[in-house]
Here is the input.
Amino acid sequence: MDRRTFVTASAGMLVGSWQSALFSRRQASKTRLILLGTGGGPRPRTNRIASSQVIIVNNTVYAVDCGDGVTRQFVAAGVPLGRLRHILITHHHSDHNADYGNLILGAWMVGLENRLDTWGPPPLEKITRAFFEMNAYDIDVRIADEGKPPLAPLVHPHEVATGGKVFEDEAIKVTAALVTHPLVKPALAYRFDTSDRSIVISGDTAPSDNLIQLAKGADVLVHEAMYLPAIDRLVARAPDATRLKQHILASHTAAEDAGRVAQAAGVKLLVLSHLVPADDPTITDEMWISAARTHFEGPVIVGRDLLEI
Ligand SMILES: [Zn+2]
Here is the structure.
């Protein structure tokens, strides 16, 4: 590192600690939910990145899914990466896990020193090991050159293959349910209960009774949603349109049905996310909301990237 690089890096650390102090003051005791990525599907877009959310409780940061671009969205949302304590993956489609390893690497770059637990379906342990192996050269160089702590011992992957309690700490209880997302098995939804809030993230799923049970009485349900009248237009752009349409309809939930699930679960707020299509300008927020409100009497929010709820 030359002097100029050192000065720039030091300034970055100062900004980082200033952001961290500001972050702490904003926390109070309220549980925060920020949508980092609200687009469905792995196709890169300019308006919405792939699925990712962050939940913050008492300065502790929990990431849920790691779509492409999640690390940059952390910075854009003003959430200190170094505070990352848990990563939860709902399922291993690339629009939910593509930046899993890069998020860990990004956190380490800005000073992660605490233990980082990661949770998700098998083969999470193999994915974690393979990522460290793929990046061993860079990681080893930075340990030797920059004095960083070894990364692998900080990261503890846990495979979750069934519904039930995932973990509980002093601030939060996390519960999972198996949801329906063929051909991906298992696919999970997560519920987060804190002293002031309950939040459920559906992951990707067709309408799911397990999800209804998991979400009973929750304050917030973030549910994936597709806008059915636009699906034909969407698949028309794909090389294998018929097969893609079958996959979409069998493994995802129409906005109307997301409303049905929210109503059956009795949640207080429904947030539509993982939107399919994600970038069709002819579908307005009002159209998404009125579809969801066909069966749901409560308030509906259409997710957008960096929206705090
Ligand atoms: Zn998926």
The mean pLDDT is 91. Residues 91, 93, 181, 184, 204 surround zinc ion (CB under 6 Å).
